[in-house]
Amino acid sequence: MSKINVNRRRFLKVTGSSVFGTGLILAMKWDELPAKGFFNKSASFQASAWLKIGTQDNITMYVVESEMGQGSVSLMSMILAEELEIACSDIQIERAPLKPLYGYQATGGSSSIRKGWATLRTAGAITREILISTAAEHWSTSADDCFADNGFIIHKGSGKKIRFSELASKASSLPIPEKVTLKSPQQYKILGTAIPRQDIPVKINGSAEFGIDVQLPNMLYATTVHCPFIGGKVKKVDDSRARSVPGVQHILSIDNAVAVVAVDTWVAMKAANLLDIEWHQSTNQHLSSKTIRDDLQRAASHSGKTAFQRGDISNTLSAAQKLSATYETPFQAHAAMEPMNCTAQIKDGYCEVWAPTQSPSKAKDTAAQYGLSKMDFYVDKVSRRFGLAEREVVDIHTTFLGGGFGRRLKQDFVAEAVQIAKKIDQPVKLTWSREQDIQHDFYHPYTFHMLEGSIDSKGKPLSWWHRLSSLRSAGTTDLPYAIPNIKIEVAAPVDSPVPTGPWRSVSHHYYAFAKETFFDELAHLGKQDPLELRLELLQEQRLKAVLELAADKSGWGRSLPEGHFIGLAAHRSFGSYVAQAVEISLGDNARIHVHRVVVAIDCGIVINPDIVRAQMEGSVVFGLTAALKTFISIEQGQIQQSNFHDFAILQFDEMPKVDTYIVNSNESPQGIGEPGVPPLAPALANAVFAATQVPVRSLPFSYTKQS
To answer: What pTM did the predictor assign?
Structure first.
């Protein structure tokens, strides 16, 4: 066990009679923050949570995280329950309101547990100690004679016990302890166990409310049609055929889209297909994937900002034994299974929104911007800034999300729903069609990479140079290999009208693909075994350990079935270390059969191994889809893909066996939702390279048979 000093400025104990009803309420702020710049804000955001122990056997944890299938809310309840000495099933989960106390609310970057780990443990321990002190006072004994167990405080000598709820009112008057003792991993009873997730039952029985499920009295249904040309606008609309469809109520122009409002979603979408819209094509009609690639290549031909440097590559790159290569990754859509949707109602100057959003705070700002008058918007903004707001004029209800992957950090769908509700003066649920969802995304950006490396007389890497070009500020990390001369550069961002945004694993996806694939090519040039060379050069022991584990469990170096090959890759991201080994065979028609993926992960202390495995399996699906199948292309200023027939995700018969091995660790828990994606594409590419001796340098890819 470890004792920690309590920072009283971070923990505030108050009575909750004015807000939540009588009981013990503990407010706390998260310790850690997301990766700098992830939300494109100059200042990092803080989130807060409330723990309430009521007088009616109710223990409530208020959360700010959006639940989109990643299981973070269940993990948070496990952390709290461990220190508080209660069962996870005794904790009720409620969303925290959008008030200044709770800070800026957004979920992304695999940050929920990383920033909540210390806070939730400390909050549980503080509450436990306050309850123990309360019981000791009640029994006129020492707190050392009492302990907490399964929702009770128990007296050691007599065995007397009292429920937490019976102590709640009195506990609210006791001071916060100066120090609390946290459990050591050896004492955990809940953490590290495969407790069923709390969101699974409601998803199975159908009672879980996703955004697309919201129903309100007197509600209408809408869909929107956006300009097919990037940056284009509505010029003229002939809606005569659409209005003839029975059930159509309104046809409206909003921003750069046309909205059809009807008695149900199907009628709205049917009518939308009958709209005859003339669009302003703007100046982007000549935009294409090729022109964008050319711009990126030109940008990469000029010196960029140095992101990491060691030694001097100026002379080593002129060595006789050197390798040059370029890599590229295409635009990718998010294609969450639940398309963009939002329900909005504006009544008596009050804007209410139900949305599957990753950022309730941004959704609230967006709803205020579009739902209030300019005067009310600025008055509300100033009032909140100085804590003068007397009542809520905008409220956001965050539902379950049917997938997020970063797409729902953007709030364009909220803006549209609020605009429609404001114009029709009636509650409305907006649902995008799949075509609109894919063709009007904020895409994972196209990237172009130039790499050069050289080897010494023994075939070992001597130098490494990598310049990366992208449409937005590209992300890199340092190189984990002990190569003496390294320079990693980021070219100036290419200006483009194509909307881009965060996508699962963000920049780690494309950076790991170029880094780990080029490493195998350089090893091949020096006639080195890529695994042995990695192990020799890796400087991070935790990354080295997962690589060794993945290689061993995959059968690397041992006999494989005829025609089978293995590729390896390892990468650190979001605080976690992941290595993957992909076993493939090559079929006819340039088809790659992926038979097995071995994943080894060190994510620190494992809270729930089932959730870790589920996230790794989901990452394999996501990564394989992007490596083998999906891409977004642009021709004449238009997105070419529109639905799953031409943006095809991995099918059941294409899914490999996934074996996940989790490293036992006492380090603080780190991300699991995103770190499984980056090593997949390079491991697969390296397997194809091993099979064909032809390097894979762009995504998605197939293979070329050798004669």
So the answer is: 0.92
